[in-house]
Amino acid sequence: MFFLILLVFVLFNSHGLVSSLNNEGFALMSFKQSIYQDPEGSLSNWNSSDETPCSWNGVTCKEQKVVSVSIPKKKLYGFLPSSLGSLSNLRHVNLRNNRFFGSLPAELFQAQGLQSLVLYGNALSGTLPNEFGKLKYLQSLDLSQNFFNGSIPTSIVQCKRLRTFDLSQNNFTGSLPDGFGTGLVSLEKLDLSFNKFNGSIPSDIGNLSSLQGTVDLSHNLFTGSIPASLGNLPEKVYIDLTYNNLSGPIPQNGALMNRGPTAFIGNPGLCGPPLKNPCSSSTPSASSPSSIPFLPSNYPPQDLNNNGGKTRKEED
Ligand SMILES: *[C@@H]1O[C@H](CO)[C@@H](O)[C@H](O)[C@H]1NC(C)=O
Ligand SMILES: *[C@@H]1O[C@H](CO)[C@@H](O)[C@H](O)[C@H]1NC(C)=O
Ligand SMILES: *[C@@H]1O[C@H](CO)[C@@H](O)[C@H](O)[C@H]1NC(C)=O
Ligand SMILES: *[C@@H]1O[C@H](CO)[C@@H](O)[C@H](O)[C@H]1NC(C)=O
Ligand SMILES: *[C@@H]1O[C@H](CO)[C@@H](O)[C@H](O)[C@H]1NC(C)=O
Ligand SMILES: *[C@@H]1O[C@H](CO)[C@@H](O)[C@H](O)[C@H]1NC(C)=O
């Protein structure tokens, strides 16, 4: 009798007839099923015979709970399933440079401990849900080089810990939400370039004293004058305002001072130093310095499909 039971046990186990995979493993198996192509076999060890997903490629657990799913640059072709949101301890999602399409599943925002969501260089589309504001721990949001559209949800200003915010090279429209600069107090990196944002540049962006590197608002449809408060940004910050529809004099203070004309070109209505068309002249001439031919002929990059164009990001 005992032998029989043992035999049955051994048979069941060795043939995987008894699946003891935990719930989080099942959630990730459904992620695997939403991937139609995995040409490099990156998910080949995602095996439902395992008890937990913790040994699977790209999966990191802490105390047997999945905290990170990181599978960058693997040519994965598929969509993002709602089941990812059921990973209650999920903190990091990095699926950059794959071929994911479709929209962000609303359920993803149930993973409220999410600290980083890095999805750049895919073919994702649709709008950003207002649920973003629920992600109180979000520090890094990089959705660049996709096909997202619509406007930035107003709730984003509740993401007080957000340090990296990169929406560049998408199809976003609308104006920046009220309180953008007042709310995102931790912001260190801001790149909204190559979209269709319009309206004026909020003056409270000048209060974001942790910003570093380039604050890139270029290649959008921003209108109105440049708020003098932008000059309050740290002196080392480079503010790229090129190719918008800004107008009026360029404030000459702080971080806006001592810039060459290259930070401002492509805005026919801007005047005064460092541009050569004086503000008094209401009709800039055809040879106006606002169209200085400083740029290489392949600039601006037009190909939003991840080839060429802007330097590809390769950091991990
Ligand atoms: C999953 O693991 C079981 C047991 O280790 C093995 O027999 C089976 O071939 C594996 N399945 C896949 C798809 O790799
Ligand atoms: C952006 O939207 C326009 C239509 O509004 C469309 O023609 C274009 O292909 C879209 N571009 C991207 C990169 O999604
Ligand atoms: C976003 O793009 C989709 C598909 O191109 C379109 O149907 C939808 O109206 C767009 N939404 C917004 C807010 O532009
Ligand atoms: C911004 O563009 C949208 C259409 O995408 C338009 O409805 C809205 O009025 C514009 N806002 C401003 C301030 O120009
Ligand atoms: C933003 O900075 C200005 C001065 O630079 C200050 O008057 C204002 O109170 C600040 N706003 C917030 C919300 O901190
Ligand atoms: C640029 O701004 C001016 C007003 O300053 C407006 O009349 C014009 O329509 C805008 N152009 C675009 C392409 O938004």
UniProtKB/TrEMBL annotation:
Residues 278-297 have a biased composition (Low complexity). One of its GO terms (molecular function) is ATP binding. InterPro entries: DNA_repair-toleration (IPR053211), Leu-rich_rpt (IPR001611), Leu-rich_rpt_typical-subtyp (IPR003591), LRR_dom_sf (IPR032675), LRR_N_plant-typ (IPR013210). GO terms for cellular component: membrane. It is found in: Membrane. Residues 275-316 are annotated as: Disordered. This is Leucine-rich repeat-containing N-terminal plant-type domain-containing protein. It comes from Hevea brasiliensis (Para rubber tree).
